[in-house]
Amino acid sequence: MILKPPVGSRKKRKRVGRGTGSGHGCTSGRGNKGQKARSGFSLKRGFEGGQMPLVRRIPKRGFNNKRFAEEYQIINLSDLNRFEDGQKVDFETLRKAGLVSKKIKKVKLLGDGKLEKKLEIVVNAASQKAMEAVEKAGGTITIQP
């Protein structure tokens, strides 16, 4: 038994420009004259036939300065309960615990959750609520630029 594709699933390629008797001769299905009938024609994205494109008609808006924005990795108070009492928590300690990645070097402490341990914390930034919670728990917080 020979395997064959189902009838009608394979279409023959349209051979254009092979004489008028083929039905696809003369202009080869491109119509008469004009830009689209020429060889090597390709239409650029957004081209509107010489009319001013929509992208250029609409005014520019806004400004973005993200390239110079300082990026912080966020740590919450609840994340720090895994450390032992009196332990010093800095970038290296947090990285070894898997709380921050090596990519961004700055860490910011936020006040979400409850801190139940007395820790010595060294971060690059902290919220007011977080600072108060650390001092209330009996720990210290150092902000280094």
In short:
With 145 residues, the protein is an alpha/beta fold.
Describe the SSE topology.
Blueprint: H1 54-57, E1 73-76, E2 88-89, H2 91-96, E3 107-110, E4 120-123, E5 125-126, H3 128-136, E6 140-143
Characteristic key phrases:
alpha/beta, Ribosomal Protein L15, Chain: K, domain 2, 13% helix
Structural write-up:
The chain has three helices and six strands. It is of the alpha/beta class and 145 residues long. The radius of gyration is 34 Å and the shape is elongated. The protein starts with 53 loop residues before the first helix and ends with a strand.
The CATH topology of the domain at 71-143 is Ribosomal Protein L15, Chain: K, domain 2
In helices, the fraction of residues equals: 10-25%
CATH class designation of the domain at 71-143: Alpha Beta
Instruction: Count the beta strands.
Output: 6
Write the element-wise H/E pattern from the N-terminal end onward: HEEHEEEHE
Shape: elongated
Tally of alpha and pi helices: 3
Q: Stretches where pLDDT falls below 50 for ≥5 residues? A: none
Reported for the largest beta sheet, the result is: 3 strands, parallel
Straight-line N-to-C gap: 78 Å
Write out the strand line-up for the largest beta sheet, numbering strands in chain order.
1-3-5
Report Rg.
34 Å
CATH-scheme architecture of the domain at 71-143: Ribosomal Protein L15, Chain: K, domain 2
Question: Would you tell me the structural class of the helices and strands?
Answer: alpha/beta
**What fraction of the residues are assigned to beta strands by DSSP?**
5-15%
Q: Output mean pLDDT.
A: 91
